[in-house]
Every structure is written in C-alpha cells, then in structure tokens.
Design brief:
seven-stranded mixed sheet, four-stranded antiparallel sheet, 49% strand
C-alpha cells in the first residue's frame, strides 16, 4: 500500500524558510511525477511544484524563484524548499505521486498534509 508522509511544516514569519519532506513507501519517487499542492483557507487546492521522472520541474508562477522541488532517490523522498515565505503561502501542503504535473485530479496517491503558517 502506497504511503506518502509529509513533514517539515510549521509557523514562520514573513521572509522565513521551511523545507517540507515527503517520504514515500511502496512507491519509487523516481518512477513517476511527484508534486506538491496546497490548499489555503477558503481556497481550492492548487499545484505548487512538480518534478517528473526525467528530473524536469514545474512551478506555479506565485512561487517561482522562491520554492525549489527536489528528490533524493536513495531516501525515496521529495523535498520542497520554501524561501522568502509570504502570508499568502499559508496553507496545508500536500505531497502527491503518480499524475500529470500540477493537475490535482490526476494524482493517484496523496499524503495527509502538513500545515504551513506564515505571519506578517
């Protein structure tokens, strides 16, 4: 049974940084697309960043230049480094596996989510 376990969320002030981790079980992160989505209060779930099996990456315009997605195949873990955080980045962040990059409805597996709160 595929499991994705996120960690690394928390509360930071504007301009701070966090690194989210997504550890996969029963699924190789290198075998397909991995992605991070987020859902803020009263908002729809949106794609944040994705990395495909060939290493290509995609980012939402709102996070380009601030967030970096990467994966460590030896640890079977995907990361989201978030720098220069803003209050509008406040959301529950979800890791997802095996889908079309940045298209939430196509992903087969989801983590439980981790809360990120950015205060001004």
């Amino acid at each position: 049974q595929v499991q994705l376990v996120e960690s690394g969320g928390g509360s930071v002030q504007t301009g701070g940084s966090l690194r989210l981790s997504c550890k996969a079980s029963e699924y190789f992160v290198s075998s397909g697309s991995m992605a991070w989505f987020r859902q803020g209060p009263g908002k729809e779930r949106e794609g944040v960043a994705a990395i495909d099996s060939d290493g290509s990456t995609n980012y939402a315009d709102s996070v380009k230049g601030r967030f970096t997605i990467s994966e460590d195949n030896a640890k079977n873990t995907v990361y989201l480094q978030m720098n220069n955080l803003k209050p509008e980045d406040t959301a529950v962040y979800y890791c997802a596996a095996d889908g079309i990059p940045m298209v939430a409805g196509t992903f087969d597996y989801w983590g439980q989510g981790t809360q990120v709160t950015v205060s001004s």
